[in-house]
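Q: My labmate handed me this sequence with no annotations at all. I'd like to see what the chain might look like in three dimensions before we decide whether it's worth expressing. Could you predict it?
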Amino acid sequence: MFDSFEVVPAVDVQDGQVVQLVGGERGTGRTYGDPVEAAQGWEEEGARTLHLVDLDGAFEGERENAGAIERVVAATSADVQVGGGIRTATDAVSLLEGGVDRVILGTAAVENPDIVSTIAERFPDGVIVSLDSRGGEVVVSGWTEGTGLDPAEAAARFVDAGAAGILFTDVDVEGQMEGVRGEEIRRVAEAADAPVIASGGVATIEDVRTVHDAGAAAVVVGTALYEGAFTLAEASAAVE
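A: Here is what I predict for the chain of 240 residues:
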């Protein structure tokens, strides 16, 4: 999935625009323009992978920004991983057949773990399970509902079920630019026998190094890149 550690720009889409939320709360986001322009800009800066999330889909359970995401996929040659509102195997397979490199399943995987193996049978490298953690508990439905699951334990189970990777989002620090919590990332990375992509809280290049040193294979960065805290090239060079 990743030949070496990658810094992956986030292109989170709400109402057709790039948005970065604070702590996963609706109404807290800042907008950053057109998703296609953002994606092309990150690719020009050297991004090898793009992280697209349909935020409306994550909250509503249906892919509200499918058109915008399809345009991004068509406009870039970078690897694209897509999440938000993917609730069925049919939806996932349609995306994978349409050019998406990896689909991200959160709520659907937690509520129906068999969906992971069903999709993985056709696309062995195509499924990432998203484990969003708030207060040490996996949360679903746009970070609004607790599940009682421990992120590290859940990561191990989903890898056994066929997940090619785990996306671990620390919702407690998401979008706040107050730093990452390396110990939380390390727990999941040590439990999962597959690449772990960390997300949430990156504010500095030192945070990128912390994620790298915690054993993750990649880090998703949103607000820090959009606000110019550092460049994609600077972050990538820091962990080469």
